[in-house]
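2024-03-11 09:14:02 INFO receiving multi-entity request
2024-03-11 09:14:02 INFO entity count = two
2024-03-11 09:14:03 INFO echoing inputs for audit
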Amino acid sequence: MTIDLPPGLVMVCGAVLIPFLRGRAKSALLLLLPLLALAAVHTAPEGTWWTFSFLGHDLALLRMDRLSRVFGYIFSLIAFIGFVYSLEVKDDLQHTAAMVYAGSALGVTFAGDFFSLYVFWEFMALASAFLVLAGRTASARAAAFRYVLVHLAGGLVFLAGILLHLSKTGGLGVDYIGLDGAGSWLIFTGIAVNAAIPPLHPWLKDAYPEGTPTSSVFLSAFTTKSAVYLMARAYPGAEILIWLGAVMTFFPIFYAVLENDIRGVLSYSLINQVGFMMCGIGIGTTLAINGTVSHAFCHILYKALLFMAAGSVLHVTGRIRCTDLGGLYKTMPLTCIFCIVGAASISAFPLFSGFVSKSMIVSAAGHNHLIVVWLMLQFASAGVFHHAGIKVPFFIFFSHDAHIRAKDPPWNMLAAMGSAAFLCVFLGVYPAPLYAILPYPVDYIPYTGAHVIGQLQLLMFGALAFALLILSGIYPAEMRAVNLDTDWFYRKGGAAVTRWADRALNPLNAVSERLVVDGAVAGLARLSVDAPARIILMLLSACWHLAGIRGEELARRKAVAARNVREGMLPAGLGALLGGVILVCAFLLA
Amino acid sequence: MKHRQGWFDRPENLRLFLRLFFAGLGVLLIADLFVHKHGEFYWENVPGFFAAYGYVSCVLLVLVAKVLRRLIRRDENYYDD
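2024-03-11 09:21:47 INFO inference complete, emitting structure
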């Protein structure tokens, strides 16, 4: 049986029903829609379906090939796990936003043309902003506001690129583009915003720690990885991505060491992991692309698992900062185990999922003899174990006991974490099912003696460094602080622009007001009142001079006449006389 | 208030854990001598290369981060004005 529906549309349209259902029916719908999408992904035959014509262009809602199918699998799978995790949440806004968000990510994945892709792209930005907002705190609102601004700006750049690309090639198909010409660079930049490629990355660390315990799980999965999909589709082999990716794996780990918020640490390690994928896309060989896709697949699982573990701690204890946590292994043992599985997976420990996927990318860098890149990736691998692998579990569950009353979270949260953890171990032990669905045939054996020993040495001696640095007191103490990042430019820069506008433009306003409103307009008003009086006084005083009136009498008459003119108290005849005189003058002069 | 005792609260357990950890490091260094190497770069075949690289990387990471903190650290309410 095939389910002949675009998977994304199933979830986006189904989301509309969420607010109308209650209790078990609602829970059933939340779980059913991702499963339906998963079934649709699984059963759709390769090819382009759901095509129609719009303004003379061919649009397609379901382009199925090996690359889109594997992303379709993991997106619908993680949506299902995410809804299991958030089943107890009593907030329709969150559920609806999450469903539209996940559905839109699937929409982006299966769009065959840039027009429908762009529509899903913007839906994704909007729906995810609501997930940032779902915390309903002042800081969440502010972060969501910045998030929307960044993504709308990115979306506009993306749209401009699509239009330029259309006018250049005449086609809208989502295929290989390559970096050539303004349009392709704009599309690249639009995707780079969503992929959090530096320096366009800080929105991620700004927004993801602000979500609710459940909403951040969804956030961690879709935006960056749909960007990875699109990069892999449109720019494989773009050399600049090798270097951008390497930098991306490199610099966030320093920030992660200093970061106090657990979900902030996870956000930085998310950027670091997407860096590996960007690097793989840049290398562009079949091994590298396979590595990128499989790493995206594994990464979505273990990153969601880590966000779920952090979310469980936040949900149960109300705390999320390293400085406030510690010793929870005694009271939240299951969460602790799941967190360690996620940490081992992201660190690419042998027998855990990251090992079978990340090593393909590193090996691809080695095969292509990219020495500096290879060294950077190995450094980043050691670093990611250091901050995400050790720091996150250590400061939450071990370290100094903060004596927090806690217990493991409700069954649904445990079930979601348990299934993600199971998949992390399963794929790590037996990667064949994952390798079978990758875009290219896989000829790669992760488990060789040298590789296992080398990787274990890299990790365990990194752990030794961590232990010695902690024991010697050199390790930087966790502290509440803000660490500057490139968002400084728009957060402080935005405020500076406002202040500058205030200082530069408001004085200009004041000067204009003085000159125009107080000066010119008032002067004109005075002139229109005074001018007749002055003309009449001039004429009258000439008459009085002729009549021989001088001194005080003249001054008195002038004062009376001026008052009468200004107050409009002249005898009616005088006005008529003046009119007559002007007519005669005009007649004589004509 | 009486706090729950965990496994790591007992010093002998912590010692055992650390001993196992150090033993593991030793095993890794020894095992390194016996595996067949086929690295892309010659230094991959040097015994203990990955151990040294992992250790030095993490020490460097922390030391650089400490310097970085001096440059980028601001008050928690830095952006709230």
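2024-03-11 09:21:48 INFO post-check: Chain B has one domain: 7-80.
2024-03-11 09:21:48 INFO post-check: DSSP finds two helices and one strand in chain B.
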